Amino acid sequence: MKEEILINAGSREVRAALVSDGILQGFLIERQAQGGVLGNIYKGKVSRVLPGMQAAFIDIGLSRTAFLHASDIVPSPSAPMLEGVDMGETDISRLIRDGQEVLVQVIKEPLGNKGARLTTFIAMPSRYLVMLPGRPTLGISARIEAEAERERLRELAIGLLPDQVVNGYILRTAAEGASAEALQADALVLQKLWESIVLKSKAAKAGDLVYEDLPLAVRIVRDMLHPSVERVLVDSEDCLATMQRFSDSFLSDSRPAMELYSERQPILDLYGIEDEIQGALCRKVNLKSGGYLIFDQTEAMTTVDVNSGGFVGQSSPAETAFLTNLEAAVAIARQLRLRNLGGIIILDFIDMDAKSHQEKILAALDKALAADHATTQIAQVSPLGLVEMTRKRTRESLEHVMCEPCPTCSSAGYIKSPETVCYEIFREIMRQDRQFEVKELVVIAHDNVVEMLLNEEASGLAQLAELIGKTIRLQAQAISAQHEFDVVPV
After folding, report:
1. pTM summary value
2. Is the pLDDT confidence value at 464 over 60?
3. Residues β-bridged to residue 388
4. 418-435 vs 458-468: helix axis angle to the nearest 10?
5. DSSP labels for 2-21?
């Protein structure tokens, strides 16, 4: 499997595409104006403690106060005010108080109307390790499956991480096959970084940013350059230089070639990536078989409806449904990554009576989600034939990053039909007739509405004019929204 990473770096926006065998598998976007805060560490101030919710609102200098749950408060160097507190207590008011200062890390970006989610479980990632200050523990990524390799890494970590009696470590997936020297170098960098954060936090004021996570292009070097990635193409010399400097400083082992892309064709036009991105903003996703998916993202959950469409199959209806669902399972997993959809997700596959078919669909979905960096959980098929799943959400979805609510339909997703608007106009004409003694009424409306009034609804308009005894004149307004109109007495 040939994997590539393409990076389009502009002055205000950086976009990155993960491509596998010419097919877009992942897409990341970071805009300077939006300023992502995930992973940042702040010196916050408790603005309000809510015992009923076992949570507190923390001012970290952003436009909205952030949210800290009692379960995310731990006695550690990142939360020195908790020293000596009995963590068996469940009352958050005994853990923190109004006006108190606390060092916190953002674990979930502000989403919609919600502020950022915080924790005092500080986690400092590097290429191979995640340092857990104040929590003496040792963990290995579950994605490293070979027991011999897990044991090798465990022994290396015990010998190479002398401060683990104070700070804990997690060996990341990228640590598979890493040398002892590489692990030790990572550990030393993290120790120095944490020491600098502790010093800076002591001098910081409430609401100050103590540590800012790396920009997107550099995070890709740190987190995504595994052995299966053959090359990284970047269309900006400055961005490429920054990535190479980080790579030279922190990646001592073999790594994929990072190259400057200088062709005339835009970099994300390769493999049709721009078209894929636009498609990921649409509700409908066509399947090769002729079936299609419908994605609906709401405040509470995301729903995905599977339809057979033009696919009629060559055997029984049950087999046709199974084949469509099988194709849909793989497409859904890919679209969840591209769209960065998270939270509760409900999948409405085409009804399958055979238990074996249901099990195969769940297995295909689970396999397709295995490469997803976000944590997912899948439930069994419900009595209603629905599959419930969750996907960890830490950042806004692609739709929320790149789009805004429709000002015409107020995000309803629908607009009133010309016929509906015509009947509203008729009622408004009657209302105006009762209020004003005039000889003429002027109807100002959208082209489509005026066209219907002159054709399909012409007889109704004529009857109304005769009923009120007044002239009704029509005026088309091309720039107005279809549902907007005005009836002006003259």
Report:
1. 0.77
2. yes
3. 346
4. 10
5. -EEEEEEE-SSEEEEEEEET
pLDDT, residue 93, reads 83
- Tokens (6 digits) for 460: 């109704």
Spatial distance between the Cα atoms of 177 and 173, rounded to a whole number of angstroms: 10
Question: For the segment 159-216, what is each residue's pLDDT rounded down to a tens digit?
Answer: 776 655 678 899 998 888 888 888 888 888 888 899 999 999 999 999 999 999 889 9
Question: Token pair 């109807």 is at which residue?
Answer: 443
Coil, strand or helix: which one is 257?
A: strand
In angstroms, what is the C-alpha Rg of the chain?
A: 29
Nearest of 196, 198, 210, 75 to residue 135 by alpha carbon: 75
Measured between alpha carbons, how far is residue 313 from residues 126, 317, 365 in Å? 50, 8, 21
Q: Check residue 165 and report its DSSP letter.
A: G
**The length of the chain, given as a count of residues:** 490
Question: Which residue in this structure is represented by tokens 């769940």?
Answer: 362
Q: Is the pLDDT of residue 125 over 80?
A: yes
Tell me how far apart the alpha carbons of residues 362 and 354 are, in angstroms, rounded to a whole number.
Answer: 13
* C-alpha dist (Å) from residue 92 to 66, 83, 95, 234, 466: 16, 15, 5, 48, 72
145-148: Cβ within 8 A, 24+ apart: 146/176
Task: Choose the weakest-confidence range: 71-80, 140-149, 294-303, 381-390.
Answer: 71-80
pLDDT digits (tens, 9 = 90+) for 305-357: 999 887 776 778 888 899 999 999 999 999 999 999 999 999 999 999 899 99
- For residue 75, the surrounding DSSP H or E stretch is none
Q: How far apart are CA 66 and CA 450, in angstroms?
A: 50
Of the pLDDT bands very low, low, confident and very high (cuts 50, 70, 90), residue 87 is very low
Residues 170/141, Cβ–Cβ less than 8 Å: yes
| Cβ–Cβ < 8 Å for 25, 277 | no
For 52, 54, 57, 90, the CA distances from 85, given in Å and listed in that order, are 20, 16, 20, 11
Rounded Cα–Cα distance for residues 369 and 268 (Å) = 24
